[in-house]
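User: Run a structure prediction on this.
Assistant: Running it now.
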Amino acid sequence: MTRKLAIVGMGKMGHAIAELAPSRGWEVVAQLDEAHVKQGITKELLGGADVAVEFSVPEAAASNVRALLAAGAPVVVGTTGWYAELPAISEDVKAKRGALLTATNFSLGVNIFEQVVEVAARLLGRAPGFEAHLVETHHSAKKDAPSGTASTLGRTASAAWGRDIPITSVRTGSVPGTHEFVFDAPFEQIHLEHIARDRRVFAEGALVAAAWLIGKNGVFTMRDVLATPSGENT
């Protein structure tokens, strides 16, 4: 059965999702840019979507999420930089029995990489002589530094490591996203790296998350998606 998708935010990610969706069994019934959003997001404007994905800008994300939830749409949010409002919105989601899924990165590999790094940091944090560092590299047009993904990885690894792990941000060229953990000791080094080769990796993960969210109630992350075998909806 074809699922219906609404996309809010028609930047690079919005277009990537729109292009990939049909081959993944989705009908894109709404593509809302800034002009549509200013008019107000309504149930009619969403075209009967089973779920909406939101990839806009930090300044608009919270109001877009509230409007989508008010219109009765489950929401997958890929925009970062608005999380100060997430606790209040999460309470609203629970009160209204809505559905919200947020992630700083929708790559399935990155989300598994986070768990791998967490285990590595916990084990190596007990070993004498090791130091840790995270280096993240993105294209030169990326505004935030460190990236939302690096911040998430850094928090997870630092908690397991037992102290803050420093982050270095590099902005150059057209790099979609590279995250490298270096665990270094005097006579050995462990290097863990995730490389995104194409923006479609994030679109793919967002569509997996959107399919998973249909029929759910509550506030979720990609860890919840990955806890379900093969990311299947249950």
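The helical segments are 12-20, 34-39, 58-70, 86-96, 108-124, 148-161, 200-213, 222-226.
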